[in-house]
Amino acid sequence: MGCGRNSDSRSGNGCVCDVVRAIKDIQDNAVLDDDCLDCPSCFLEPLGSMVSPARDRADTRVFVLKNADGSPFHAFFSPTNGACISIYFRVEDVFDNCCATLRVLEPGRIEDRRFVPVNLVGGGERCCINLERVCQVNSFRSTNDCITVDLNCFCAIQCIADVDLGLCD
User: Fold this and answer.
1) Torsion of CA 119, 124, 128, 131, to 10 degrees
2) Calpha distance 136→13 (Å, rounded)
3) Binning pLDDT at 50, 70 and 90, where does residue 54 land?
4) What's the distance, Cα to Cα, between the start and end of the chain in Å?
5) Preceding peptide of 79 cis, ω within 30°
6) Alpha carbons 153 and 19: distance in angstroms, whole number
7) pTM > 0.85: yes or no
């Protein structure tokens, strides 16, 4: 059941599922190309097209999923310094009528050419994503944590960036 749909809906898969499937196909068929568009879309091909200028190499299209209330979906991951939360994902597999395995990506920023993790939870409320901290994120690192989701449960998807996480080496 997705946004505004009841469980009797026979209209097929939701658009979030279609976009995640397309991202998976794009990642699987990553090739280099210098074409860029002014308004990036999750459907841009090849992988690397969301970066301007186009990256030398990319193996991941980073995206965020949105819940029915517009809040970002989040998952836990375990870095070396304790559990954290991320809203950023890489699709690993899509199966069984819109279920997906997503790799949780560690958000960070680049300072003096090194990756510095950004804790997305903080401020006055320890339970909530701090949107000001989300704005500090400009880099991502792969984790070993994955989550399986029903893609029909989300109302929106936003593609963030094409990056090279070194997963396909």
Assistant:
1) -60
2) 34
3) low
4) 37
5) no
6) 14
7) no
